[in-house]
Amino acid sequence: MKAIKFHKTGGPEVMQYENITLDAPQAREVRLRHTAIGLNYLDTYFRSGAYPLPLPSGLGFEGAGVVEAVGDGVTSLKEGDRVAYGAGPLGSYSQARNMPANRLSKLPDSIEDDTAAAMMLKGMTVRYLLRETYKVKAGDTILWHAVAGGVGLIAVQWAKHLGVRVIGTTSSPEKAALAKSFGCDEVINYTKENVAERVRELTDGKGVPVVYDGVGQATLDPSLDSLSPRGLLVSFGSASGPVKGFDTGVLAAKGSLYLTRPSLNTYVESDEALQANVADLFEVVGSGAVKIEVNQTYALADAVKAHQDLEGRKTTGSTVLRP
């Protein structure tokens, strides 16, 4: 079998396409042959060392495939089942792997493997953000940064499905057009416009009750300045670098604001929470309310190029690696 491994942290070039040996699945595990693997910005945090972990290590949290063997005690899955996952454990950049059976979800016939691999982590993230971290309701106006990315395009559609008005930010006219084609009501080009000023203009000076920010340090101030009093900044990623040295007094000065830094793992820690999240995701995708755009595909062996393009902002929507 082949898998991507890295023995030191750094740029995309540290990833190596290596031979691996795969043992028989242990109790409560299955052996999964990947048919498609999801690429996420989160992967770059582990590869770069921003999120430390023991080395050498595999990479990737998201994939889809077919069960090839089951270990003792597994009753929920059988050989031949199509399954997908999006909350790890780490190691999806591989042709095959052993996985805890309880962290896999059976795929309905209506969802193809590429779609599943592209949507699981991102879709599960959107679900907990919109339905749990801040439970949006019809009539709300929200601000979502990097709205033309894989998470952003899912979020726009899901939010619109729930009756929410979405203001998004992007870096180019092309990405703005893409976001609008998916239903984004207003798009702000943050390279040319003052985000907070535009948000105030679009909300009659009120600001928004919640900002979803996967960018991090670069968008911290515009995010806070876009909130209405007692609004919530949901800082769920750090594509521009992590927020550091933050003075909590700023939250009081800007209107008794709230700031949270959530992660998917907390929200799907139990098997029941995981499957509830996935059930909602399968429902909105299966119904057509949320469409998953796989705009780029790469061979697993070309993971270095995939990471270079992702970090170089050359990708839109979702990306899939093919084993």
How is this structure best described in words?
This protein is an alpha/beta fold and 323 residues long. The chain is 30% helix and 26% strand. The chain is built from ten helices and 15 strands. Strands 3, 4, 5, 6, 7, 14 and 15 form a seven-stranded mixed β-sheet that branches. Strands 10-9-8-11-12-13 form a six-stranded parallel β-sheet, with helices on both faces. Strand 8, helix 3 (150-161) and strand 9 (165-170) form a beta-alpha-beta unit. The longest helix has 21 residues, at 113-133. The protein is globular. The protein starts with a strand and ends with a strand. 46% of the residues are buried. The model has no long low-confidence stretch (mean pLDDT 95).
Helix and strand layout, with pairings?
Layout: E1 2-6, E2 15-19, E3 29-39, H1 41-48, E4 63-70, E5 82-85, E6 96-100, E7 105-106, H2 113-133, E8 141-144, H3 150-161, E9 165-170, H4 173-181, E10 186-189, H5 195-202, E11 208-213, H6 220-225, E12 227-235, H7 249-253, E13 258-260, H8 264-267, H9 271-286, E14 294-299, H10 303-311, E15 318-322
Parallel strand pairs: 8-9, 8-11, 9-10, 11-12, 12-13, 14-15
Antiparallel strand pairs: 1-2, 3-4, 3-6, 3-15, 4-5, 5-7
Helix pairs in contact: 2-3, 2-9
